[in-house]
Design brief:
By secondary structure, the chain is an alpha+beta fold. The chain is about 20% helix and about 30% strand. It has a single domain, classed as 3-Layer(bba) Sandwich (FAD/NAD(P)-binding domain). It contains nine helices and 16 strands. The chain has a seven-stranded mixed β-sheet, sandwiched between helices. The chain has a three-stranded antiparallel β-sheet with strand order 7-8-9. Strands 1-6 form a two-stranded parallel sheet. A hairpin with a 4-residue loop joins strand 7 and strand 8. The protein is globular. The site of flavin-adenine dinucleotide has 32 residues, from strand 15, helix 8 and helix 9.
Length: about 300
């Protein structure tokens, strides 16, 4: 997203791993797209700025169990940076989902695009190489890729990736045959639930308005030896009474960068090589979509 907000022009080159690399790209379903993550915002302006129609929704929360259990399963020290905890009472969603706004923005890119893995970046020479492509020279580089990834690719720089930590999450998306007018967030701090949160949202796409989507968030590390994440997601949704019928669509998503921790001091001084950091992953800072807008504008 941060790259798109920078409005790449015909002189610019956009490099990404693959087209659907951003979590905001969404999933394709029934000629529509649905978001991969539960994405709520506290203000409507950034939705409007992206050309979307903001829909205000009430938030209803339910807490089952204790916060300590959630903290333990996530392996974090506190929950203040965990997304679902940031929303109370009211939030905004764009009609048609974020994926629609994001894809519309991608289709307007005027710059050239290259997909592939970055092999290395030589900051002194201002050169980089992408997969099988020849060497590319740049004047300035805006990094919105995860900072730990960038640091691994930089030649002749002190490695800092061990200081950058993230909590990986499995996010099961269950499309349910039930209409919703509000957002329901369940915090699950009880042993019988594998998930720590379920966020149940209305689907604001005209073709899907009789359906809703439940995002079941399971800490990956706590259950990686057991596996069966899909089954766990279904079982938790069932225990909460969300499944009176089988879901019409289920998709699992592994989010390596679920919660970000750690310092980025090793990246200080990158400006000297023409490298600027941007976005939540690029800056390694818990920024929401609207925060990314604000930061881009401030710079
Ligand atoms: C679980 C979760 C819930 C969230 N909930 C909210 C919310 O409710 N409200 C809100 O405002 N924000 C929320 N966010 C944050 C929101 O997703 C970001 O603000 C938004 O995606 C913009 O961030 P960005 O521009 O840094 O990232 P992106 O647009 O995702 O860009 C990052 C780029 O890095 C590339 N990339 C990713 N992984 C790799 C990798 N392993 N190797 C190489 N390249 C890679 C991608 O291809 C992509 O192009 C949530 C995030 C998470 C993880």
């Amino acid at each position: 997203m941060a790259t798109l907000l920078n409005n790449p022009g015909s002189e610019d080159l956009v490099i990404d791993i693959w087209e659907g690399g951003s979590a905001l790209y969404g999933w394709d379903i029934l000629d529509a797209c649905v978001d991969r993550l539960p994405l709520l915002v506290n203000e409507s302006t950034c939705i409007k700025e992206l050309g979307g129609e903001p829909i205000e929704t009430n938030i209803i929360t339910e807490f089952h169990g204790v916060e300590e259990d959630i903290i333990k399963k996530l392996g974090t020290t506190d929950l203040s940076s965990f997304w679902p905890f940031k929303f109370v009472k009211k939030a905004y969603l764009p009609e048609g989902g974020w994926c629609n706004l994001f894809r519309r923005k991608i289709s307007k890119i005027r710059g050239k695009r290259v997909f592939g893995e970055i092999k290395y970046i030589d900051p002194e020479a201002r050169e980089l190489r992408v997969s099988w492509w020849k060497k590319l020279r740049y004047d300035s580089l805006l990094n919105t890729l995860p900072l730990d990834y960038l640091m691994k690719k930089l030649r002749k720089m002190e490695p800092v990736e061990d200081k950058l930590k993230s909590v990986p999450l499995f996010i099961g998306s269950l499309i349910l045959r039930s209409r919703m007018d509000e957002v329901r967030i369940y915090y699950l701090g009880k042993k019988k639930f594998s998930s720590v949160t379920i966020v149940h949202l209305p689907l604001l796409t005209p073709r899907l308005q009789d359906f809703s989507i439940a995002y079941v968030i399971i800490p990956y590390i706590a259950y990686r030896n057991q596996g069966a994440f899909r089954e766990k997601a279904l079982s938790d949704a069932k225990k909460l009474g969300l499944l009176n019928k089988e879901p019409v669509f289920i998709r699992g998503y592994f989010e390596k960068y679920g919660i970000l921790h750690g310092k980025v001091s090793g990246s200080a001084g990158l400006e000297r090589y023409g490298i600027t950091l941007a976005g939540r992953l690029g800056k390694w800072k818990e920024l929401g979509i609207c925060d990314v807008f604000k930061e881009m504008r401030a710079e």
